[in-house]
Write a structure and sequence with these properties.
Order of helices and strands: HEEEHHEEEEHHEEHHEEEEEEHEEEH
Shape: globular
Number of strands: 18
Low-confidence stretches: 1-21, 332-347, 356-363
Distance between the termini: 133 Å
Number of helices: 9
């Protein structure tokens, strides 16, 4: 009880010291109301289950949580999560007024003895600051909230490109003792990129227990700009369901950062009726299939889906025939050739005879 009293006093102190102006979420300069998929790394403060985390972050379908963490789609909701284990949380990010935050949700119901600082630092493991919660929920006094009150938790995010590339923005809570160099190496990005994204003057300005905007490389595909999932990005080492769960697309950097899509196992197991996924102009080829002919390889890939419940496909054919040998004639011949003396003599003789005949006619 004494510890709780200390936390309450600390919350009051922090709220009184908070600046009047506050930057919400991560920087997001994308067009107003732009949305995208983003991620946060939630460090579980205690032993729990996937079902509890799904509920805490208002994730509609368990399969979305499984996909983000590259867990089998058959993983049960009772799957244990150990204390201090990081679970990747997928959500929709919305950009507005230069900032990006989760929308809609997650929504948290205030429990007995809760206060904003505790909710931000303990319940949501420093992914959000209490001032953000106060701001988006229009709470006048940060120390006055009621049991059962519904709070929108604004997770930080962004939809911006980084260095001209589309990326998945990931909120990483900085551990005490870590460095910008270490974080950049872990997530495959540059130190300067992290400094610029997070508006840090130098690596010495890194603060522990604060969410850091980290850009993650992701796989893309030849998805049509007219597709309802034209913005689909999947981070390396994970997968996602799309086209009304009829298609599963996975990302592995070993495949040249190209999405590998195929009919989803969810559709097959749940009896979901999906539209045709065959490629036009190819016999019996569906998305994810390849076939080899005498001198070519044909691959059927996913290209998106439409509101008319149509799945778009793309047939890519590549030649595997060996290149023809270089021509031996003309200026393209780079090799020394033996002179045919017989041919040379014949041409010389013909030229001499012609000259003699012309001379005789002049006489």
């Amino acid at each position: 009880m004494g510890c709780m009293a200390v936390l309450v006093c600390l919350s009051v102190l922090l709220c009184s010291l908070a600046p009047a102006a506050h930057a919400l979420g991560f920087s997001c300069t994308s067009q107003p109301e732009a949305t995208c998929q983003a991620l946060v790394g939630y460090i579980s403060p205690n032993t729990t289950t996937l079902r509890s985390i799904q509920s805490l972050f208002s994730i509609k379908h368990l399969r979305s949580l499984l996909a983000a963490n590259n867990l089998s789609s058959t993983t049960p909701p009772t799957h244990p999560v150990q204390a201090n284990e990081t679970v990747i949380i997928p959500f929709t990010c919305r950009c507005s007024n230069g900032s990006g935050i989760s929308y809609p949700g997650p929504v948290y119901t205030v429990q007995k003895d809760d206060f904003l600082y505790y909710i931000a630092t303990v319940v949501f493991s420093y992914l959000v600051v209490h001032k953000d919660i106060q701001l988006v929920n229009h709470i006048e006094n940060a120390n006055v909230i009621g049991i059962g009150q519904k709070l929108w938790i604004p997770l930080p995010c962004s939809c911006d490109q980084v260095d001209g590339q589309r990326v998945v923005h990931y909120a990483h809570v900085v551990a005490e003792g870590s460095s910008v160099e270490e974080i950049a190496r872990k997530f495959g990005t540059r130190e300067q990129t992290l400094l610029d994204l997070n508006r840090l003057p130098s690596a010495n300005d890194l603060i522990a227990d604060k969410a850091l905007d980290v850009p993650l490389n992701a796989c893309t595909s030849e998805i049509s700009n007219e597709s309802l999932d034209a913005s689909l990005l999947v981070r390396n080492g994970s997968y996602a369901f799309t086209a009304n769960n009829c298609v599963r697309c996975s990302c592995d950097s070993a495949n040249n950062w190209t999405l590998q899509c195929q009919p989803s196992e969810i559709a097959a197991s749940s009896g979901l009726t999906c539209p045709s996924m065959r490629c036009s102009g190819a016999d019996n080829l569906s998305i994810g299939d390849t076939t080899t002919a005498s001198c070519s390889i044909a691959a059927c890939s996913y290209a998106g889906y439409t509101s008319q419940n149509t799945i778009l496909t793309n047939l890519d054919t590549k030649s595997t025939c060996p290149a023809p040998p270089p021509s031996s004639g003309g200026n393209g011949n780079k090799y020394a050739a033996k002179i045919d003396m017989g041919t040379l003599f014949s041409w010389n003789f013909l030229g001499t005879a012609t000259s003699i005949l012309l001379s005789m006619r002049r006489i």
